[in-house]
Amino acid sequence: MAENLTIKQENFARAYIETGNASEAYRRAYDAENCAAETIRVKACELLQNGNVAVMVEELKADHAERHEVTVDSLTVRLDSAYDVARDNKQASAMVSSVAVTAKIHGMITDKKQIVNNDPHGLREMSTEKLEGLHAENVEKYLAKKGLKAVPVDASATADE
């Protein structure tokens, strides 16, 4: 199993495999009673991006699949059988579902995610001058935190001088 995980990270990975829901796994592994749903979602997503947690999740998935002898081939056989039953019963929507899931497990279909309000500060609407001003302010704040100060550069000076 993946090394260097905290107990909570390990519990999160196990709960994620059990539930298939990252937010629910986070609630089970961490003290999230007073957290907003959006905070839980973000924290759960961050955990899934953590290298060690991701390795453990993949290891647990592999163990689970091996234990239950689940493979893409075995799932394909089951979906083909479901398609046949649906066809025999003239259930077009069930046939379409079987085809779609088969395509998905074979990597032919991927889910798309929509990012909503990915410009919360209205940066796209700001003028270049306003953006440059904000950038300069942020650079100055960063340097101040580091105990440094920006020194103006003489634009007329060249590297050859």
* Low-pLDDT stretches: none
Alpha-beta classification: mainly alpha
**Rough shape?**
elongated
Compute the separation of the termini in Å.
60 Å
Strand content: under 5%
Can you give the helix content as a percent range? 55-70%
Number of separate strands? 0
Number of domains: 3
SSE run: HHHHHHH
- Radius of gyration equals 26 Å
Number of helices: 7
Mean pLDDT: 84
User: Which sheet architecture does the biggest sheet show?
Assistant: none
Q: Could you write a compact summary of the structure shown?
A:
The protein folds into 3 domains: 7-67; 72-105, no CATH class; 122-150. Helices cover 62% and strands 0% of the residues.
Question: Topology of this protein?
Answer:
Elements: H1 7-19, H2 22-29, H3 37-49, H4 51-67, H5 72-88, H6 92-105, H7 128-145
Description:
The protein folds into 3 domains: 7-67; 72-105, no CATH class; 122-150. It contains 7 helices and no strands. It has helices at residues 7-19, 22-29, 37-49, 51-67, 72-88, 92-105, 128-145. The radius of gyration is 26 Å and the shape is elongated.
Provide tags for this entry.
mainly alpha; 0% strand; 7 helices; elongated; 161 residues
